[in-house]
Amino acid sequence: MSTQPSDNAEPGAAPAAVSADAVNDNTPTVTGSEPDAAKHTEEEPKVVNPAEAQAIAPVDNSEPKPTTAPAQDTDSPADVKGSESTTAAELSPLAQLWKAAEGHAHFEIWGVPLSDPERHIPTQIIFQKFLNANDGQVEKAKDQLLKTLDWRQKTQPQQLLRKMFSKAKFDGLGYVTTYTAGDEPAVDEPEQKEVFTWNLYGSVKSLDETFGNLQEFVEWRVALMELGLMEINIGGAIKPITADYDPYKMTQVHDYKGISFLRQTDVAKAASKECIKVLGDNYPELLKEKFFLNIPAIMGFFYGLMKMFVSKKTLQKFHPMSSGTNLAKEFVNTKVDGLGDKLPAEYGGKGADLKTLGKAPIVQ
What we know:
Layout: H1 50-55, H2 77-84, H3 93-102, E1 108-109, E2 112-113, H4 121-133, H5 138-155, H6 157-160, H7 167-170, E3 174-180, E4 193-200, H8 207-212, H9 214-232, E5 250-255, H10 266-282, E6 287-293, H11 299-306, H12 312-315, E7 318-320, H13 339-342, H14 354-357
Parallel strand pairs: 4-5, 5-6, 6-7
Antiparallel strand pairs: 1-2, 3-4
Helix pairs in contact: 3-4, 3-5, 4-5, 9-10
């Protein structure tokens, strides 16, 4: 199983609907089927003792004055300021992103209150993901970061975790599961756990009802993504990532069992397209691998459709499988020993079913 960096892309319940999160994200491809904004705490004013203040006090050169001793060669305030200031071009990529984010009214991403990345590893990880998603190009990363802050300020994804969704429309449609290397949860150790988001599009009872209200469906899918991010727990991270090392990602599974790929509806297509855009734009570099289960031969059409929306790098993470029971065999060599056996029986494992073990957005 490959572990290349990822963009957010997500197909939903069928080919028509070509989810981070991206997964990572990511979103359903159905073809038929804050914390308080992190307030910037201003640093305590620096107390300068009289001796220091005199050393950098401005020199009055308006009228030369006689002196019996050689004049001291001290820098003027302007010189001192010039030597200490740093131009934007001299700032590190992470510092440039922080400078851009500081001017925004919203200071939270993925449940993490943003802070100076030089002193806050979780913020550093988030910024690095935006850089990785844009191949290290700072301006592009900055643009995506600011647009994500705009979107989160408007959408308030964290509040969707408390929203009640329609049970008739969304019950059993998606879950988040976490599998750890030991018996105890390794909440703050990404190397000791694997997070999965599951999209079970065969559970959709009515395509028009589930996908008919586009905003409602997108909100449900975003809530599922935020649940996955809670399990990844970037906020508790103590180890930075790089362009090549990033364990803060999740695996996505899209199960199309029972879905007719010929039952494509306009509302399902619109829902998939919108989710792919939302997750791709706002949840970069969160997708580890994406598996499409119980896929018929017609998926050739499905992949042709996805190529229009996702990058080649992301497509390399997509794995179509005709039988869902073979999924466990894909996890022989992973950071969690015996991961395949921990999956539900219907996917080739020996673990609890998704309804018992998984977490999902609230429904009523």
